[in-house]
Amino acid sequence: MSTTGTRCPYCGWPDDAEPFRVVSRHATATGSTVWTRCGCGSLQVRAVDERGVRIVSRSRPADAPWSRAGR
Length: 71
Description:
Radius of gyration: 12 Å
Distance between the termini: 15 Å
Number of strands: 4
Shape: globular
Strand order of the largest sheet: 1-2-3-4
Order of helices and strands: EEEE
């Protein structure tokens, strides 16, 4: 399941735009997994394979308020 929208839900920055910081990169059987950090601080896991790049998981920034509605 992909959580890729077109923008970060916390800061509104486009998911496919720079700047984002690559935290780590790992090879997988089907491509790679890239951990990135958005400019707002949200940590993202990106799956890279023959279908392209998808954000498959995203955390809220450390300073973003927690809410049950966001789950």
